[in-house]
Amino acid sequence: QVQLVQSGAEVKKPGASVKVSCKASGYTFTSYYMHWVRQAPGQGLEWMGIINPSGGSTSYAQKFQGRVTMTRDTSTSTVYMELSSLRSEDTAVYYCACRAMNIQKYYYYGMDVWGQGTTVTVSS
Amino acid sequence: DIQMTQSPSSVSASVGDRVTITCRASQGISSWLAWYQQKPGKAPKLLIYAASSLQSGVPSRFSGSGSGTDFTLTISSLQPEDFATYYCQQANSFPRLTFGGGTKVEIK
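^ Those are the sequences you sent over. The predicted structure of the assembly is below.
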């Protein structure tokens, strides 16, 4: 079955960078776009950006432009999300997610497979 | 960017009640809307996609409707396991998506 497994919790100091990984299994890695979504404590879901594992193209939410970089490694079926210049407001759970659906325009149909989440804590 | 506004932000209801949550887009998004359920400490779960299509495995008491700017998620008969927070998400502006602020369904 389609599964996304994320890397473990991180604790970072303000100004540092964090890189979270998301390893995909159970499908052809290059078949589906991968999203990153975060959730600060007690807050709602926030879409950060998307990567096309096939060619590596990305699109980021305006809020994170210049601070976020999403990459992929097709040899290990892994996508990465790196966030730089961390501040306390970046403390959150970070999720990768995709829509595993073999139809045209599948990417309009929500996200049905989610990683378990990675907690990133930014504290001095 | 397209803004998604959910209402109410929270609702208190009893088991067996009919619950309706609304989501309004700042501009027309056709039917490119999804609904999610999230329980504390868990990843979101997809309930509805394309505004009204039920995701596989989701109970039929969940339904979605709407198009353009106004959408509704309805739980026809609230069950104990339905107490959670619900989010809408638009995909009309793919690849850039946005979520609504969430609606918490609490026990009355």
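The radius of gyration of chain B is 13 Å. Chain B has no helices and eleven strands.

Shout if you want it in another format.
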